[in-house]
Amino acid sequence: MTVATRMLKAEVIRRADHWRRSPASAGGAPGHKEWMHFCVLAPDVEVLLNLSLMDERGPTVEVPRVTLLARCRDRRWEGGVERCEHVEVRGGGIRARFDRSSVEFERGAFQVEAQLRDKPLGVSLNLEPLAQPALTSSIELGAGGTMKWLVVPRLTAFGEISVGDRRIRVHGAPAYHDHDWGRFEWGGDFGWEWSVVLGEQTGVPWTLVLQRITDGPRARVLSQGVLLWRGARHLRTLHGTDFHFEALGRKRVGRAIRVPTIMRLAAPGSAADLPALLRASASKGGDTLEVEVEIGDLAQVAIPNDRGLGCTIVTEASGSARVRGRVRGEKIGFEAPAVAEFNRHAA
Amino acid sequence: MPRDFGQLLEAALGMLRTDVPEAYARIAERLESAPILFDVDGREFLLCFDQGGHRLADPAGGRQVRVATDTGTILALLDDEISLLGSLRSGRLELAGSPGSVADFDDALNAFLAGAIRTTRAADLLKELRVTAREKGDETQ
Fold first, then answer.
1. Which pLDDT belongs to residue A144?
2. Domain A185-347: which topology?
3. pLDDT, tens only, A65-81
4. Into which CATH architecture does domain A1-184 fall?
């Protein structure tokens, strides 16, 4: 990666990955949702961190939450979601503090610290972007709702992750980051399926992001596609009718963690309308791509709906992917770890 | 001296009434005609809703549903260490009432939980419940 490429990525991130903040915080319309999401796939531990600001119903604007989940290789997911009290977020900047968690972008890398109040789980990481960010156009989410997202698909992580009394050093682990913002209602007529495949861990240069956004019953596709990077370069986007997406089989939730844990009481069942396998195929102009993501261990995050007293369940899943195809004349064939996410209304 | 479960439940309902009125209204609607007799850690009380508010009353009053358990089990349920079905099967939780009344109780419980995740103050009450459960646990040892 050249110095020029590194500078370009940093400049894109500085210009586009800043907190938008809710217009309601300055007297404007409420309904804003925004979060920064990080995934790290280290050999011994996977971590998901989400820092969010969500307008809720009525006068409650910009409710700040930290969600931190970790899965050691020999254990199930653990973690929590905590509502924060001491928050510093400046619109137009990347730096943010949520109680004992923070994010900053300096010298071309993210510095991310996170520590839960109620559980012995924390991260202290430096995440250096390795691939060109991509910014999506506005995506429809339910009636009148829209969301945009910036994806930094591949980073390399250094630092430490603490799980209980274990201190796990992270040295060059593959990572992923996105930033999502928009004005929509949790519980609206939409759902999504998303996955990132981080090929770098197995020595291949490919990174893929798959996504499908549908209406709530998944009868109508609102948006779908696959974004493909080779090394630092965003090589190809295939979407719309060029892309076919299937969610196959049924994954049992079993005793998967759900946070906040009290929401397990509210919806105790183990059936969750989740697939065991995501299969995507894309074809256009001589390029072909076949992707399968096998869904592994699950962790669920309950998000209060904006109307009524229901919840949206966002399920995070570890996974393993198989990718085959040919793009820009280059043959692709590899297996790699993946992370998947599903947005569903609570049963 | 930490507050007992009844006092904490009363405080939690007061919190929901202020912070998440929609949840409180749902609970009140479901329980207005179905008072709940709680028997927690051996202390009995009746949870009643009338005239738009709640109160803890003498257990001798008429009840529709009886819930018998201990604070350790309530905490285990909230922490997802035991399932609702598991607690019933193991006898750690007893739930008795007509099917309609139990369904109303379940709906009220769901509204209570939905309200609890919508307010920051629930975390403080949960911490207090842990202290109560710990002290009750010490008493029984």
1. 84
2. AttH-like fold (2.40.370)
3. 999 999 997 778 999 99
4. Beta Barrel (2.40)
Q: Alpha-carbon distance A64 to A30, whole Å?
A: 15
Enter the DSSP assignment of A95.
-
Residues of A in contact with B23 (CB under 8 A): 309
Question: Are A264 and B123 in contact (CB < 8 Å)?
Answer: no
**A117: closest chain B residue by CA:** B123
Q: Is the pLDDT of residue A2 over 80?
A: no
Q: What are phi and psi of B85, to 5 degrees?
A: -65, -40
Tell me how far apart the alpha carbons of residues A75 and A220 are, in angstroms, rounded to a whole number.
37
DSSP-assigned letter for residue B118? T
Q: Where in chain A are the domains?
A: 1-184, 185-347
- Residues in B touching A265 (Cβ below 8 Å): 77-78, 80, 84, 109, 113
- The nearest CA of chain A is from the CA of B106 a distance in Å of 9
Q: Do A268 and B78 touch (CB under 8 A)?
A: no
Of the CA atoms within 13 Å of residue A332, those in its CB half-sphere come to 26
Q: What is the pLDDT of residue A107?
A: 93
Closest CA of chain B from A255, distance in Å: 9
Judge whether A1-184 and A185-347 match in fold: yes
pTM: 0.91
Structure tokens at A222: 């609102």
Share of residues in chain A with pLDDT > 70 (%): 95
DSSP 8-state assignment for residue A76: -
**pLDDT tens-place values along chain B, 141 residues long:** 789 999 999 999 999 999 999 999 999 999 998 899 999 999 999 999 988 899 998 888 777 899 999 999 999 999 989 989 999 999 999 999 999 999 999 999 999 999 998 887 888 899 999 999 888 776 655
ipTM: 0.82
How far are the Cα atoms of A89, A93, A100, A119, A219 from residue A96, in angstroms, in the given order? 5, 8, 11, 21, 38
CA end-to-end span of chain B, whole Å? Answer: 18
| Residue numbers in B near A266 (CB within 8 A) | 109-110, 113-114
The A-side interface with B (CB below 8 A) comprises: 56, 83, 85, 118, 257-258, 260-266, 268, 302, 304, 308-311
Domains defined for chain B, CATH in brackets: 5-135 (3.30.1050.10)
Does the beta-carbon distance from B120 to A309 stay under 8 Å? no
Predicted pLDDT at B1: 75
Tell me which residue in B26, B83, B113 faces A266 most closely, judged by beta carbons: B113
Q: Is pLDDT of A128 > 90?
A: yes
For residue A53 the two structure tokens come to 């600001």
Measure in Å the smallest separation between the Cα of B126 and chain A Cα atoms: 11
User: Which positions in chain A touch B77 (Cβ < 8 Å)?
Assistant: 265
**Which residues in A lie closer than 8 A to residue B105 (C-beta atoms)?**
none
